[in-house]
Amino acid sequence: MEDLRLVPLDEEHLGDVRAMLVDPDILHFTRIPEPTPDDFPERWIDRYRNGREDGSCEGFAALDGEGRFVGLALAPTIHAEDAEVELGYIVPPDARGRGVATEMLRQLTQWAIDEAGALRVVLIIDVENVASVKVAERCGYVLEGVMRSSHLKQGIRIDAGVWSRLPSDP
Predict the structure, then answer these.
(1) Quick check: helix, strand or coil at residue 50?
(2) Domain limits at 152?
(3) Crossing angle for the helix pair 130-138 and 100-114, nearest 10 degrees?
(4) Which one of 40, 87, 127, 157 has the lowest number of neighbouring Cβ atoms within 10 Å?
(5) pTM of the full predicted structure?
(6) Is residue 27 part of a domain?
């Protein structure tokens, strides 16, 4: 999906974010709490807007060529002093299977290196999330290892692959 663009996540995306939070796969594979509090979308958008200001995190809405919302491209953790950034991506069901996640991660990785100054970019992916693993591989990420029984949320533990990309990687 070459015509995808990332724009800063803000209130105008609230309805799209809220709609994504009913998808069982999104809830299963992300840190979004279950059940999701009614005000979670507002608090989430506020977190990324505040993080944009203080440099601790960044969130983008992904839009297709016609301006339709097709997902979230997130940097939930930015450690400027360490030059390390954790990234994540979420694609709603109606946008899956079109290369959206791959293009979002490609652009988000470039942003992390060029704009956030990352010397190491990290993804943490549940080993059961086969689609996300394929996205990481397509974007040149390297599996460093698996954190066994890692805490995801609310007492839920997963085996999580740690994937990384360096500016010097092909």
Answers:
(1) helix
(2) 5-165
(3) 50
(4) 157
(5) 0.96
(6) yes
Tell me how far CA of residue 8 lies from CA of 13, 36, 161, 169, in angstroms: 10, 23, 28, 27
Radius of gyration of the chain (CA): 15
Arithmetic mean of pLDDT, 84-93: 98
If we measure between CA atoms, which residue out of 74, 50, 46 comes closest to residue 61? Answer: 74
Residues 2-27: pLDDT tens digits?
799 999 999 999 999 999 999 999 99
In a domain, 170, yes or no: no
Domain with residue 116: its CATH number is: 3.40.630.30
Q: What is the pLDDT of residue 2?
A: 74
- Helix (H) or strand (E) holding 88, with range, is strand 84-90
The predicted model gives 142-155 an average pLDDT of 97
In a domain, 22, yes or no: yes
